[in-house]
Amino acid sequence: MPAVQGTVVIDGYEITITNPDKPLWPDIGLTKLQYLERLITLSPYLLTYLRNRCLTTIRWPHGVGDTFFYQKNAPVPTPEYVRTEVLHGIRYVVADNLPTLIWLGNLACLEFHPSLHLIGSNQPVEWLIDIDPSREYEPRIGQAAAIVGELLQTIGIQSVPKTSGATGVQIYVPIKAGYTFEQLRSIGRFLGIYLTQRYPDLFTLERLKKNRGDRIYFDYLQHWYGKTLSAPYTPRARPGAPVSTPLTWEECRLLTNPAEYNLLNIGERLARLGDLIQQVPPQDLDHALAFIADARI
């Protein structure tokens, strides 16, 4: 049977949509067409964190639960409206506009993992700490993330928790320009040492999952030049179609199942709350860096 396809026109560009009825999340019956409709809803928020960055996507051509692969080099042929940039020999897609996002969605790119720096820069755009559980279901994850947020607040840093879209929570800190990845890592190391000493049964800095027991990994190392983390508002290729979703701190404290925020309900939430990250101003980290320097840890 020949493949079914059609076209849509977005911002003046004609985009071919193939197999619109293909289930991409079979467990909830979410088809490619429905996914693309939800990407359009997400686009004003998701594109904020993809623009002018090197983008890695994860593609699931036959839907969640089947084979997948990471896409770093831009797929070919590449339409005229898709910007690409070369970094370290890889020609990355730069998702600067809605046509690019829909083109990627049609290719069954279900996850979007941008660089932590902008094109042409080696400085971080924001600071992310990954609070990563060692168990598939971790009812303490929200409380653990809240402890980190409270600790940041004590050294004068406002932050926003967001679900990773998988099992964990990431602490997102908007930052002023000019800081280095090394400086952010030094703050992260300081916090990690404190937390593992203060809460030894809850937090660990052990990188090997098999050695963590049921402790939650305080991962400050993933935030580095050349690495990626899941973008705010990216869908995730997991059962239930979860979305990496910024939360209020009250929601975070009560969180037990990050997957409750998903493609089926994210539109209503965004219409009601907007982007919680944008409600926090870029943070000045000078005081925290000076405090750590004085502590000499």
UniProtKB/TrEMBL annotation:
PANTHER family: BIFUNCTIONAL NON-HOMOLOGOUS END JOINING PROTEIN LIGD (PTHR42705). It comes from the Bacteria. Residues 31-276 form the DNA ligase D polymerase domain. Transmembrane segments: none annotated. This is DNA polymerase domain-containing protein. It comes from Insulibacter thermoxylanivorax. Pfam families: LigD_Prim-Pol. InterPro entries: LigD_pol_dom, NHEJ_LigD.
